[in-house]
Amino acid sequence: MLETETAHAAAPALPPELQSPRAKLVYLYLTTNGHATVSEMGDSLGMKKMSLYSILKTLREQDMVVREGDAYTPA
Known about the structure:
Layout lengths: L2 H8 L10 H13 L2 E2 H8 L3 H13 L3 E4 L2 E4 L1
Antiparallel strand pairs: 1-3, 2-3
Helix pairs in contact: 2-4
C-alpha cells in the first residue's frame, strides 16, 4: 500500500453536515487529539477563542462534540 493510501485510510471521516471549513478543522483536530481546551485549540489552530466558542456551540448542538469540564471531546 502506498503512503498516500495509508494516510487516507487512517483519516477520520467528516460528517456530511459539516459545511464550514473552520468547523471541519476543529472537528478533525478533536478527533485526532481526543480532547482539547479552547486555549489549546486556539494555540494549535491559530484561531481566536470567540470563533472557537461559536464553532464549538454549533458542533455541540449537532451532537458532534461534548464538553467535559474545560475540555471538548468528539461525541
